[in-house]
Amino acid sequence: MLLEARGIVKAFGAFHAVAGADLLLEESELIGLIGPNGAGKSTFFNCLSGDARPTAGTIRFRGTEVTALPPAAHARLGLARTFQVPIVFDTMTVRENVMVGAFLRHPHRRAAAAKADEVLAFTGLAEQANLPATALGTPGRKRLEIARALATEPVLLLLDEALAGLPSAEVEAAIDLVRRIHESGVTLIVVEHIMEVIHRLTRRVLVFHQGRVIAEGTPAEVTADPAVITAYLGRRAHK
Ligand SMILES: Nc1ncnc2c1ncn2[C@@H]1O[C@H](COP(=O)(O)OP(=O)(O)OP(=O)(O)O)[C@@H](O)[C@H]1O
Ligand SMILES: [Mg+2]
What we know:
The chain is of the alpha/beta class and 239 residues long.
């Protein structure tokens, strides 16, 4: 088992954003995580990546208990993530942004730059390498975040709505990128609202609602599940 999260709770005061969620993930899977707005998907990612400390529950990654470890420890073990709203270093160039990730495994500048260039080519950002990160629009910033994450040479990559808000031409390119990342041997969990993307990318999906996993199966199975339909449409729609 690559990742084992059991009974994860994340409370903000009396409110449980994640309310007892489990996730078991085998190496080389590509799974989808869906659910209505506010279901707790990003908060669950934060728990998995060490950006938030779970209130309860246990997370094991590659056999190590990581529940209370900081994000840097997760990164060293091979977990990388992107954020729903891309976070890039505005005062740096595109290449320097990716080097920040590359320094994790390549402490020498020259090696980090070489790693960054390899990842920039892979992610289609090579031509923008010397531009300031501020020159990129939203699609470019999302791509840059993925590039920085890949530069850490992850075993597991968590993508939080990496395709949301992209124009349709960019969506195709992004689907292709996610596929190529997977084919390169990286295990992925993708949070995504566009069901068509989920159908095309994944064969196993978890559905979050009110901080819990309410359904799990193929994209076709979960979209036909009455509990999932009710969660998306609201209770009254199915009374
Ligand atoms: N730091 C925080 N303090 C208080 N409440 C929070 C905090 N972070 C998230 N929440 C709440 O937890 C719930 C889950 O939020 P989360 O962002 O994890 O949902 P999500 O499934 O990612 O939603 P979306 O699809 O809109 O991105 C929401 O009600 C949100 O307002
Ligand atoms: Mg979210």
